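Suppose you are handed a protein chain with no further information: no name, no annotation, nothing but its sequence. What can you learn? This example shows the usual starting point.
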Amino acid sequence: MMMRARTLLASNCPAFVARRQTHGLWRLVLWRLLGALGLLTASLAASGQPVPQAPKPANAMDSKPAAKAPVLLTISGALKAGPGKTVQLDLAQLSALPQQQLHTQTPWYPAPRTFSGPLLQDVLNLAGAQGQTLEARAINDYKVNIPVSDAARFKPVLALQIDGKPIALRDKGPLFIVYPYDSDPQLRSSVYYSRSIWQLKSLEVR
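A reasonable first move is to predict its three-dimensional structure. Written in structure tokens, the prediction is:
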């Protein structure tokens, strides 16, 4: 009885009554805010407008730079860019140059094949080559010297494809310098066959 009387007395205390009224007022305000937010969300969804979303945490995977395309050809030496500079070309850059087709017999295949790719001259122009000789090096480090004048005189192709298909590494790809052997008898000789380097990876202009 004593405890019940004390509880009843406290509930009639003005401070206690005021505190209960304040709590009730805040609860009412909170419910009204939640109700307004629900109505706003429903209204936006019905009108077709985007509903605001909470920002997502940054993902470290999203910040990775896009992977670079592999370099097929590196050109260095006497370039317009200056000493020590290099030009690195990938498949997309080589394919963006005017493409030429060259149908010719070669000593490496039993029948004539169609080679396609940019002219060697166009590749040298793109790189800003200014020398007289090219030291061409293959993936297996075979190297040969090619006069720069061959590019304008004979118009060899830096072949990217054979018969419309990319040249596989095992089939002398991915880059193969091919001369138009059928166009001039002097090209059908060991001198020009040796300059027809396949699996080409770099050119140093001297």
